[in-house]
Every structure is written in C-alpha cells, then in structure tokens.
Amino acid sequence: MGDNNSPPGSSKEADHDSDANALVKDDSSLETIVRKFQDSMSVGKRHAFWETQPVGQFKDLGDVSLPEGPIEPPTPLSEVKQEPYNLPSQYEWTTCDLDSEETCTEVYNLLKNNYVEDDENMFRFNYSKEFLRWALHPPGYYRSWHIGVRAKTNKKLVAFITGVPARIRVRDVIVKMAEINFLCVHKKLRSKRLAPVMIKEVTRRVHLENIWQAAYTAGVVLPTPITTCQYWHRSLNPKKLIDVGFSRLGARMTMSRTIKLYKLPDSPATPGFRKMELHDVPAVTRLLRNYLSQFIVAPDFDENDVEHWLLPEENVVDSYLVESPETHEITDFCSFYTLPSSILGNQNYSILKAAYSYYNVSTKTPLLQLMNDALIVAKQKDFDVFNALDVMQNESFLKELKFGPGDGQLHYYLYNYRMRNALKPAELGLVLL
Amino acid sequence: MGGDWQQLLQSVVLGLIFSYLLAKLIAIVVSFKDDNLIITRASTAAAPAEPKPDDPARSAESGALVHEADSVVAEHGSVRNDSAGSEAGSDDDWEGVESTELDEIFSAATAFVAAAAADRTKVSTEAQLQLYGLYKIATEGPCSVPQPSALKMTARAKWQAWQKLGAMPPEDAMEKYIDIVSELYPTWTDGLIVKSKGGDGSSVGNDSKGPMGPVFSTFVYEEGSGNDFKMDAIHAFAREGEVDNLLKCIDSGVSVDAKDSEGRTPLHWAVDRGHLNMAEMLVSRNADVNAKDNEGQTALHYAAVCEREGIAEYLVKKNADTNVKDNDGNSPSDLCESKWPWLQHAKE
C-alpha cells in the first residue's frame, strides 16, 4: 500500500507541471475544477488516510500521461492480510447477518440514530429494514462484507460499514467492484477515528474475494472524485416541506401559489404506463443495458441484477414502464427508491418521505413526460419530495419539471482505478443508494 | 516508518546531549531566587514526545510559546510543537491508537494550559508540578528515566512529580489533568466550544457529513423573482403574524383592506401563513372577509388551498362566502384536497 502513485513513467515530474499549465490555459473548466478542489481543502488540510490509499491523487489531476485503469495490480491472495485490523482495545469486529431480525434491528437503529444528516441537523436518513436487506443482499453478496463493530463490554453495535459486489463498466472494461456504503460510527465515538480502520477492514475483506476495485460516494471532497453531482428536489407536498424546513417560502411568495405551482394531475398521462412485473425482467434488462451503454461509467446489469434491483418492492423500490398498447413492446422505464428521513425536532411531523430517482430509460415516450408520470405516481404514493441527481440525462427534465437545486453535492469515487479525466455528471450512469 | 524512528532517535539523542550541557551551564549560573521554577527550553527537546496529530493552528500557537517557555506549563506547548514534524500519516497511526474523546479534551486542556502560561496566569508551583507529572504519565507513561542530580533542583522536582505517580494508567492521568485544569480555570471549556465549531472538521461534534456515503440535501433558498411585485408594511406584518405592529399600522390610518400589487389584503397574507390570531384581529377590525385578489380568490380560497382548517372554519363562521368563484371558476371547496363537511355542505 506504500507508495502507489509513481508507476513507471512518472519520473518526468518536472514536465508534468508545464503540461498541466498548457492544459489549464486551453481548458478553463479544468482550471475551475482544480480551484474548486483547492478551495474545498482548507489550508494545510491533508488527507493523511487517503494519501496512503490507491486512489487518484490531487497532484495527478489532469496528468494525461498516467494510464487509465487499476493503480495497483492485484496481489496474490496469499499475501492479503489474513487477520482483521486491530481495533481500539474496547471494541471487536462482528459480521452482521441482516437475515437475523435482531441484527437487522440493531443495524437499523444504529443508522437511524447516527447516520447522515443535513447541514443544519434537521433531518437524518432513516433507511428502513426492508431497504437495508434489499441494498445489502444483491445477487452474489458476501455476508463477510457486512461489517459491524461492537463494544466488548455490552456488545452494543457502535459502527457499521458494508460492501456489495457489482460489475461496473468503465468505458469498455467491465470491472468487478465493491460498492461501499453505510459507513456509520456512533455519534459518541466520532473522535475515535474508527472510520479509517473500518475502511481498511472492508477493503481487506473485499481483497480476500479477489476483488480489487471499489466505488463509493461522499459529501466531502476526497482524493479524487471521478465526478461531482448535484442534488435536485421536486416538491410533491410543498406545505409539509416548508413546515418542516426542507424548503423555505420566499417573503414575496404565498403558500397558496406555491401549492398551485406544484400541483400534479391525479393519474399518469402516458397510455400503457404500468408497474413493472416479474415477466418484464428480460425486456427491462435489454432496454436498460442498451441505454446504459452510452455512459462512461455505469453498472453492467444482467437479468438477475435487474430482478433484484428494479423489480418493485413495497416501500423500497418502485418501477414503472410503458408497454405500447398496440405492439405490447416495452419502450420506456422509470424507477425510484424510497428513502425516508427522520425530521428532528418538529412537533407536527416525524418522517419525511422521499423518493430518489434511480434508473430511467426513454425510447418512445419523451423523458420529460415519463418523469412527470413518475412524479404523479410518487405523489399518489404519498411521497413528500422527489429527489434526483444530475446524472445520466436527468438534466434534460429537472428544470422543466420544477425541480429546484439542492444544497447537497455528491462526489463519486473509484478505489484503485484511475480515471484520466473527471467526468461530467451526464457521463455517469451509476446511482449508489 | 524506519525513517520516523531514526528521526525520533536522533532528536532524542541530540536533545539529551544538548540539554545536559545546557542544564549543567544553568545549574552553575542560575540560582533559585524565589519559588518560580525556571525551566530551560532545552529540556523540552529532551522529552521524547509521543506525537498526536494536531491541527496546524494549535501547533503554530504553541510554536510561538516556545520563545517564552519560562514555566513548567509552557513546556507542554513546545513538546506538542516538536511532535508536529514527525506526524506524517503512516499507516500504523490509524490502528488501535485512535484518539478518543478524552484524548481530545486532554489535548485541548494542555493547549489551554500552555496558552494560560503565556499569559502568565498565576498558578502555584505545586499545581504546576502536579500537571507536569500527569502530563508525562499521559503522554509517556511511568517514569523510567534516571533521577537528575541533586544540583538540578527544578529538573529533580519535576522528575519527582512524575516518578511519584508510579504506574498510573494514562487515562486516569488525563482525567486528573483535566480535573485540575477545570479547578484552576473553571471557564476554560468556554473557548473550546467556539474553537471546535470553527475547527477544521476533525474536531469534536462536527460530522453531519460522514467521511463516505450519501448526502442529505435540502433546497437551496431562492428568493422568487417578480421585480414588479410590491407590498406594504401592513402585508409584511400580517405575513409574519406581528399583531402589535399591524395594529399600529391600522391606528396610524392604513386601511385594513390595503392591497398589495397582486390584490392581496392583509387577511389574505395572514391566512396564507396560517396566523389564526392575526385573522381574528383583522376581522375584528372590520376587514372584508370576501375581498378578492387579482385572481379572484378570497381568503377562504387561500385557507382551502393551504388546508388551514381552523382558519377556514373561522372565516365561514364570519360569513365568508363558500360559493364564491375565482377567475378560473373554482370555489374554495373545488381547490381543497381534504373534504371538510362544513365546506361541502355550504356548497350544496
């Protein structure tokens, strides 16, 4: 793991600078990206952990001489550390079996009380147990990648991190990766710096399965994002969103007009728009594979994956498609997942019900109309807000369908895989939960 | 890793030689005038600090202190400063020895003590020595260095303070240290909170954004456009529910039914924002419950759209017209998602 940033050929360090300068002159967007990174890193702030990891480093940004692909070659499995990393003495590793109701409840509670919040600490994600089982049990999952940390004394679950296997295509290479998610450390233990050792432990267990790459997201800038996406929000229940502080009512705007603005028809407009069913899996897989092939980084879904990730499951994932009334051909598809959040400290409401845009494909129905129908069914299902990233072709409908920009940026990362250039959000075909 | 050790060893050896020479010199030259313990800066370098990552600001602060290291307590600062150089994030720092909350409070306490020493706050020699001993236990463990010669009284006093604590566990030493600091400076944590709030993100209690994972995003606040929009103070008071200010407006002669550029009266605004008490006050001041805005909507339309049941019920009681149509031909109940029987009935 030591020095991983100097593959053969990087000896001409001096040249890089001039190359980079030349590039910056030509490419003002690169310049802004570089500046953005520098701004977001406070002076002197170093990523002591990430600088030791095989990830794209800031200093290599825009260096086109470095090859795209794995940063470190796989090591023989026999050389992978066999024992878990050391935890502080009061804690021990545990593997979490989400099929056990008891364990699942423990994980659920840990996340419910300690996972991600908004900047103002008004909301905290409240992933449901069914959602967690769905997210962590895709085809071919490894139980050993569902890692918990317990306090030795009382066996309380105090930290959690997970990986699930995925085949992700980067340009024309399909790479077996782990999608790392649900890193959560109990609020009382935040200063113990458990996160780095947890990341290393999940990495070790991923390596033990002969997998050497990973994909993950973060709200913070680490070395180095492959792209930075922006969240957009579409109010479905504006009054509640305003009451709970998710959105604000401008001084010159009336509630009455706001409610009218976001009003949606009672039922979808597209003929043949219906819920996806099991027998649609082959058709949806074809549609989706074809659609995702246009993006630079996207999952490589087969029918098993589609059945798992996209077949509707109550309160977890919803998928709709358009079946042509004449030909019965499946022409379009849209989906969103259900991620509620706890509303912290509001007397009237305790849960914010949010739908998150997942994978959408349009071939016959205009994407705008398809997504408007998705909004309509989400409203019918009593969601308060519909969220979407500006990935894939989403930008084409966001403004027109009255999505407003969010304050959240989501950075995407690959572990041990270098991308020569950062992607535009629209070049990314991957949604992580 | 190897480099770090070499560096550390080197600095320890050099420091020892240097301190020995300097201490000797000082032992000869300096006599103890009063109870003030004078510690040479050199002894600082002799202390092989167990480095803990520190934020640059604090290191800088303690760096400045080195120049006036004239008390026992100030030494802590400089020890910390020495450690900053060898901090380089090697892999092993992360394993098993993660800093705890106690660590953080302790290091904040040492920084505070160093700063307080710079201010020359009066602290008894006894307390200073106690802090010194605890500090050494917390950072280095039990005393295992040989007793300094009887000539070096300061060094000897310090050594004794350390040595007499025996094999006290480091955590206990940190806690005791914090207790003493809290006793000496009851308000020392006040500054700490401010500091960690504006801190570099690795301090206590930040972390709405985790190191990894999804992001919780909310709407960016955008003031709606509409530059030709105009409203008066009375509308703003109605909107904000400021009854007293609104009364003043009325008493100073502003019409209770004054319209903004969209034709809305204060009653429209009060109902829109859900201020029942304001609505009641306006109606009691003879506001027109059936006043229409430019779209032909009354306050009852607003109450229906915004589902403000209590207010709607009140307006109906005050003879608001339930059959009135707006410019689109909708009555209040046409616009209401919930079906309120008293509004429905009225419609029939």
Automatic annotation (TrEMBL), chain A:
Residues 12-26 have a biased composition (Basic and acidic residues). Keywords: Acyltransferase, Transferase. Coiled coil: none annotated. Residues 243-425 form the Glycylpeptide N-tetradecanoyltransferase C-terminal domain. One of its GO terms (molecular function) is glycylpeptide N-tetradecanoyltransferase activity. Residues 70-229 form the Glycylpeptide N-tetradecanoyltransferase N-terminal domain. InterPro entries: Acyl_CoA_acyltransferase, NMT, NMT_C, NMT_CS, NMT_N. Its EC number is 2.3.1.97. Gene3D superfamilies: 3.40.630.170. GO terms for cellular component: cytoplasm. It catalyses: N-terminal glycyl-[protein] + tetradecanoyl-CoA = N-tetradecanoylglycyl-[protein] + CoA + H(+). Residues 1-26 are annotated as: Disordered. Adds a myristoyl group to the N-terminal glycine residue of certain cellular proteins. Belongs to the NMT family. PANTHER family: GLYCYLPEPTIDE N-TETRADECANOYLTRANSFERASE 1-RELATED, N-MYRISTOYL TRANSFERASE. This is Glycylpeptide N-tetradecanoyltransferase. It comes from Rosa chinensis. The lineage of its organism: Eukaryota, Viridiplantae, Streptophyta, Embryophyta, Tracheophyta.
Automatic annotation (TrEMBL), chain B:
InterPro entries: Acyl-CoA-binding_protein, Acyl-CoA-binding_sf, Ankyrin_rpt, Ankyrin_rpt-contain_sf, FERM/acyl-CoA-bd_prot_sf. One of its GO terms (molecular function) is fatty-acyl-CoA binding. Belongs to the ACBP family. Pfam families: ACBP, Ank_2. Residues 45-64, 76-95, 321-340 are annotated as: Disordered. ANK repeats lie at residues 262-294, 295-327. The lineage of its organism: Eukaryota, Viridiplantae, Streptophyta, Embryophyta, Tracheophyta. Residues 102-190 form the ACB domain. The keyword Signal does not apply. Keywords: ANK repeat, Lipid-binding, Membrane, Repeat, Transmembrane, Transmembrane helix. This is Putative FERM/acyl-CoA-binding protein, 3-helical bundle. The chain crosses the membrane at residues 12-32. PANTHER family: ACYL-COA-BINDING DOMAIN-CONTAINING PROTEIN 6.
